[in-house]
Amino acid sequence: MSTIATVKAAALAIPPELAEQARGYAAAATSPNTRRAYSRQWAAFDDWCRARGLVALPAAPATVALYASELAGLGRKVATIEQAMAAVSGAHAAAGHSSPRDAALRLVLKGIRRTVGVAQREAAPVLASHLRAMLTALPSSLAGVRDAALLLVGFAGAFRRSELVGREFRDIAFTADGLEVTLRRSKTDQEGRGRLVALPYSGSPELCPVRALRAWLDAASISAGPVFREVTRYAHVEVDGLTGRSLSRIVKKAAEAAGLDPSAFSGHSLRAGFVTQAKLKRKDEASIMRQTGHRSVTMVRKYDRRADLWRDNAAAGLLD
After folding, report:
1. 188: phi > 0 → left, psi -120 to 50 → alpha, else beta; which?
2. Do strands 178-183 and 229-231 pair parallel, antiparallel, or not at all (unpaired)?
3. Which of 83, 73, 78 is nearest to 109 (CA)?
4. Which end of the chain is more exposed for a tag (fewer CB within 10 A), N or C?
5. Of the residues 161, 252, 271, 279, which is catalytic?
6. Catalytic site residue 271?
């Protein structure tokens, strides 16, 4: 029997349930957020092609180049355009077609990067001074108690948005030294190896993430399920947890109440603030990476530029 015939026979012998299981594992190779983003991008490209009488699959490289150019003309960020291109390439690969990203398309994308620029607008970090102002401006309501815990735990743990809002009661443990938070899965740990993050008690009770979280859990009577939840205007604690969008809204609202520009901050500002503040305090990179979960020193060092703006600043004291 030839090799091709053997392979075909083996394929025919695969039970349907095993093939379905294999497809499930293949789908799990990327995160749900990535799959949803690619799905949206592919749908947008398919709609664009249909509206112009063009073939989306398999697409000619010139068609994809025109699409990328139109996205750039609409003011889309380079990162968004690159995601769209990845989605188109992924759809072609899944359908057994070669990628439309030929030399001409790569040249167009290079021109877009040079013209539009690859620098992304970064969220301003929430530094210690900002955090104090935000906490002072929070209301004494149940939602205010939650927001204080959310801000302090998010900052001290240097958590990503999904890591913070996705915490369950089973993931936290109060100890004599502080708080231990278990991350069962994260952006850089899609296989679910898990990671433990320690949050120590603060010498200032009003700035202590451990005490703040304990106060929120007690006030909301939470002993299972999501740690951080929506609170209605009637002080009712919902069953479902917060989302990344909810976190961003809470951070912006707290910034505005503190007299800061809310548009400059986002849910990522807490994590960015931790790294920047740690850099200003000259914490060593190994300890910072242990808290943030960064695997690359390069990713941590990207915060050096902002920290160095204020550390040993040549303008400091000149007009005193």
Report:
1. alpha
2. unpaired
3. 78
4. C
5. 271
6. yes
In the residue annotation, 130 being an active-site residue is answered as no
Contact 87, 41 (CB under 8 A): yes
Of 92, 160, 161, 306, catalytic? 160
The token pair that represents 213 in the structure block? 């979280």
Q: pLDDT tens for residues 114-169?
A: 877 655 557 789 999 999 999 999 999 999 999 999 999 999 999 999 999 999 99
In three-state secondary structure terms, 241 is strand
Specify whether 187 is catalytic: yes
Three-state helix/strand/coil letters over 165-207:
HCCEHHHEEECCCEEEEEECCECCECCCCCEEEEEECCCCHHH
62: tokens are 């010139």
Contact 241, 227 (CB under 8 A): yes
Selecting among 92, 161, 294, 306, the annotated active-site residue is 294
Closest-CA residue to 158 (of 276, 32, 251, 250): 276
236 given a catalytic annotation: no
pLDDT value of position 320: 61
- pLDDT tens digits for 248-258? 999 999 999 99
Token pair for 57: 């699959």
Alpha helices in the chain (DSSP H): 3-13, 16-27, 32-51, 61-73, 78-94, 103-116, 128-137, 142-157, 161-165, 209-220, 244-257, 269-280, 285-292, 297-301, 304-310
Residue 177's pLDDT is what?
94
Position 219 pLDDT exceeds 90: yes
How far is the C-alpha of 204 from the C-alpha of 268, rounded, in Å?
A: 24
